[in-house]
Amino acid sequence: MAQEVLSQNEIDALLSALSSGEMDANQLKQEEKDKKVRVYDFKRALRFSKDQIRSISRIHENFARLLTTYFSAQLRTYVNISVASVDQIPYEEFIRSIPTITILNIYSVAPLDGRIIFEFNPNIAYAMYDRMLGGKGNSVNKIENLTEIETKLMSQLFEKALDNLQEAWSSVVDIDPMLEEFEVNPQFLQLVSPNETVVVVSLNTTIGESSGMINICIPHVVLEPIIPKLSVHYWMQTENTKERKPEEYENIAKGLEDAVLDMKVLLGKSSISINELLNLNKNDVIHLDQSIDKPLQLQVDNESMFLVQPGKNRQKLAVQIVEEIKGGN
After folding, report:
1. CB 84, CB 202: distance < 8 Å
2. Which domains does the chain have, with CATH numbers?
3. According to a count of CB atoms within 10 Å of the terminal CB, is the N or C end of the chain lower?
4. What φ, ψ does residue 184 adopt, rounded to 5°?
5. Does residue 71 contact residue 137 with C-beta atoms inside 8 Å?
6. DSSP 8-state class, residue 292
7. DSSP alpha helix (H) spans, the chain
8. Are 63 and 171 within 8 A, CB to CB?
9. What is the CB neighbour count within 10 angstroms for residue 117?
């Protein structure tokens, strides 16, 4: 339990109050014995620890980076997406916090139970749609009057972004997200009970000159099977105990066996001046630092690996390994 450290002035004031009778020592002891009551709101039950919320935030920071790259390539305009907040709130509070008319994508995330919601602010959704059709990315808030073509094009754009969600969560669980529904009115959407705890990840989003929020709603029932994997202890344990499978070592060995290496034999070296190099003529002799009765060096990718002696094999120049050079040169 954390203890509060008093300053010297506070200690003096406390002793003075006890001496003068302003404060009763027995009363202090009684207050210490009394149980402290903390107010708890059952409608806002906190079912995730701070550690688990940080893990979810880290996953979606990676997702935001992937999504930025994806939308930049698809829309060919400036895109910036970043995590604004990660909170756990009742589902009812999430529904009340989003616009009455908005863009809602409902995804299943097999093999996890339940579904998650992506809420795209109308400004963002129409800016994306305008860019897809060759516009400047202007936003027109007419979500309640979406045509079938507009609905289809938007759905396809959001559905293709699911690969990024799958990659972001791959460090914790392999999911297969799939678009189940496309809705514009949150009142028609009832995934879980109103008091069910959900994690809401809010992403600050800028598309060209338009900006808004992308909210991701993840019910507790979806995350419940993988809650232990959201702790830092699990992440550190996984990283420290991860071992390669025997077949992985075999694949690495086979890959190394097929690698091509550059091998050459060094006959010797010599140093001459630029003037001597420019005046070299036919039949001139260059003296090397290599003795004819000593083995030559065989180099592999410019690293001296073996001592060899020259010769012939089947009428071709060859070398025979005499000794390995320990540690290379």
Report:
1. yes
2. 44-240 (3.40.1550.10), 257-279+286-324 (2.30.330.10)
3. N
4. -120, -15
5. no
6. T
7. 8-20, 25-33, 50-75, 91-97, 122-132, 148-160, 162-169, 220-223, 232-241, 246-257, 274-278
8. no
9. 24
Residues 235-252 have pLDDT tens digits of 555 544 455 677 777 878
Residue owning tokens 């009812």: 92
Residues of the chain below pLDDT 50: 1-2, 239-241
Asked if 260 and 147 count as a contact pair (C-beta separation under 8 A), the reply is no
Res 181: pLDDT:
85
Q: Specify the pTM.
A: 0.58
Between vectors from CA 127 to CA 126 and to CA 128, what angle results, nearest 5°?
90
Say whether 21 sits in a helix, a strand or coil. Answer: coil
> What phi and psi, each to the nearest 5 degrees, are found at residue 204?
-70, 125
From CA 29, how far away is CA 320, in angstroms rounded? 92
